Amino acid sequence: MKIKGKKKILNTNFVLFLLGRMISDIGNSVQMMIMPLYIIDAGGSAATIGLFSFLSLLPALIIYPFAGVIGDRMNRKMIMVVTDLISAGVILALGLFSYWGFMRISLLLIVQAVISLLNGLFEPATRGMLPQLVDKEELTQSNSTVASMRSISILLGPVIGTVLYANFGITIVFLINGISFLLSGASEMMIQYVHVKRQRTEGMKGIVNDLLEGIQFIMKNKIIRNMCYFFLVIYFVLQPIFSVILPLFFKTNLQYSDTQYGYLQTIIILGALLGSVVVGAWFGKEGQITKPFTIGSGILLGTMLMFSILLFPKSLAALGNDTILYLVLLAGVLSLFSFANIFISVPMQTYIQSETPDEYMSRVFSLVSMISRGGMPLGALVYGIVLEWVEMHWTVLMAVLLMIVICNVFISLLIKDYKMQRSY
C-alpha cells in the first residue's frame, strides 16, 4: 500500500517490484525466444509452433477470471511470490529431464501449459498491485518504466538465449529461466505491502458475484469495453505474426544463422524500449490516450504493410535472402512495429488503472486480459493451419488489410467516447 505524506526520493517498493519482474522476464524471454527454433530443430512444423503458442496462452486465459477474484480477495504479493517459486520448480524439473535425455516436444507442450496457468494467476495480481505502489498522477510514467524494464529484459533475452542455445543446448536455457524465477520471487518477498481484507461472500456464490461485478464495471465503461473488443481482434491478427510467421519465415525462407535471429529479436525489442521512453516523456503527465493511440495505430499499419511487402518472393529476389541490407530492413520495420505497440498499450493500461477502484482492480484487469487476449491462442492455431495452404506473404497482406479497417473504426469510436466522457 502506498504511504501518503512526504514524497520519497526513491520508491523502494516500486524498485523491488521492477527488479522482480525484470529478472523473471529475462529468463522467460531467453526460453520463449528459443522455443520456436528448438521445435523446428527437433522436427516440429508450423502447426507444432502454432500449438506451442496456443498452449502458451490458453490456460492463462481460462484461469484469468478466477485469478482476478483471487487477486482482489487475497494478498497480491503472496500470489506473485508463490507463482514465481512454483514456476521455478517446474522449469528446473524440465531442465533435469532434458539433461537426462528424456526431452520430448510433447513434454515441452505440457510444461508450457502449466507455466501459462501460473502466469494467468500472476498477471492480475501484478497489475492490481502496481497502483498501490505509486501515486495516481505517476501511473503513466510508472507503466512506461515497467514497459521499459520489460523491454530491456526481453532485449537481453535473445542475445543470451542464442549464445546459450548455440553453444550449450536447450538444457542450460531451462536452468537460466528456472533460476530467474527463484530470484524474482526473492525480490518480491521484500516488498512492503499491506493487504486490505474486504468483506466478501464466501463460496461459489461469492466468486460468481465478484465476477459479475467486474463484468458490470467493464460493460458500463464504454472506453474499457471497446478496448477489450479492439485488442481481442488485433491480438488474433497480429500476435501470431511474431510467434508463428517470423520464426518460420526466418528458418525456411532466409539464410541467416540463429545468432542473427537473436540480433533481429534484439532490434525489435529496442523499438519497444524506445517507444516506452517516448510515451513516458511525451505523455507521462497528460493522462491522454487518444493522441498516442492514433499515432501508434498509424505507425503500426504502415510498418505492417512494409513487412508484408518484404515477405513477397520478388522482394527476396531483389534484396537477397542472406544480405545485410535485407536483415537491416526487416529489423527496422519490426522495431517500428514494437514501437507503435507501446504507443497503444501503455496509455490504455494507465486509463484502466486510473478509472478502476482498487477493490475491482485485479478482476477488471483479469477480465480485460481474458477478453482482449482471447484471440491470441486461436490466432496462433489459425495461422498454423492457414500457412499449410496459403503462402506467408498473402496471409500477412490480408491481415494488414483487415487491420486497416479495424483501426479506423476503433479510432473513431475512441475519440467520440473520450470527448463525451471528459465533457461530463
UniProtKB/TrEMBL annotation:
GO molecular function, one term: transmembrane transporter activity
Ranges annotated as spanning the membrane: 12-40, 46-67, 79-99, 172-191, 228-250, 262-283, 295-312, 324-344, 364-386, 392-415
Major facilitator superfamily (MFS) profile domain location: 13-419
SUPFAM superfamilies: MFS general substrate transporter
Record keywords: Cell membrane, Membrane, Transmembrane, Transmembrane helix, Transport
Entry GO CC: plasma membrane
Superkingdom to which the source organism belongs: Bacteria
UniProt entry tagged with the keyword Transmembrane: yes
Annotated membrane topology: Multi-pass membrane protein
Subcellular location: Cell membrane
Name recorded for this polypeptide: MFS transporter
